[in-house]
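Continuing the batch. This is chain 6 of the set; chains 1 through 5 are on the previous pages. Same settings as before, nothing changed between runs. Recording input and output for traceability.
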Amino acid sequence: MISKTVVTNVLLLGTYGVVAWALSAVWRMPPPGAAAAFLESPEDRRWITPAGDAPEEAAPLSSAHGSDRAAAGRPAPAAALSGTPSPRRTIASWSGGRRLILPESPPSPDPAVARRQQHISLGDGASLGGFRPFPDDNPWNQDISQAPVDPRSEVLLRSIGWETGLHPCFGRGEPGGERNGIPYVVVSSAQPRAPIEFVAYPEESDPGPYPIPAGAPVEGEPGYDGDRHVLVIDRDEWKLYELFRAFEVGGGWRADSGAVWDLRTNQTRPQGSTSADAAGLPIFPGLVRYDEVAAGAIRHALRFTAARTRRAYVPPASHWASSDRSPLLPPMGMRVRLRADYDISGFPPDVQVILQCLKTYGMILADNGSDWFITGAPDERWNDDTLRALKRVRGKDLEVLRMDGLVAD
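Output for chain 6:
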């Protein structure tokens, strides 16, 4: 016969087990009305919340990519499994724990748009899934490994820094602090448009409204100074929206200048016009991005700065930003590449990807700034110590490509 004590103990243990299981399930549950899933990849987890949910109800993430990998075994919600996009996503941005509300668009009947919807996620620093802005024959995407060298190559390189090393102006940064690089956010065509007020170069700016979400990441925040670029890619329309010196004001934005780029064409700015960049160029296509380096190849030119530039520009640039007419200084749009005979085998694998890009596509002078600073997007997965190996490459290891179509004052 089983005693009452044994029965009581069994019942208590069973009750404790049920309670523990329930608490565990509650702890793992997403916010009310939300479902958690790896929609794109373990590195790009998002909370999915139905339209109308307040942002406060979304679970906080440590960054745009999310550091909690505990949900790897969770099943995808029915919406994700069926291929029907969730109507709204709440994504935590880096600065101050703010969240972006990014409405998802319905599936498109256009095959090109549908492919981008399938492979490009929404969010702060989201991967483009292998898609490359602009057509293959765009200057940013051209292989220049066999292009002729400019006869004044050494003179121009010395004006920037013959013995000066390359500098990665991007990296991991410190969570909760200023991000190291120029951030960007990917939105859908359902993103509400915000009014834009241009205060410095309105006549050279593309008028708003722009599909910039409230709380969009701004370069240099939480600081007030600096270029404060804001970059937004509309995944569905395949357009790029960029602002210079941007400040969020009420339900819109105030900026010095701005430009809209159709990523399906080879459009350029009117001659003599700026953009959100001094040279009149788009910024985003020239960024070093972690997703490309992790994939093993960067298939476009990079963007760099120099402290002293000439009052001149060369295509694809359309604008100068200097009063110095010296032909010994580099013009905006000048393109350089890493010498073909430069041995990159001793560098870390991630840095080798960047250096091979410099051999194949080169980098374009786009703004005034510190010498040989290469621009990239911030990402918590960067290894800053590894990136510092770029400094071993010096100006004397580069070549200036022949400059055709120079425009000078």
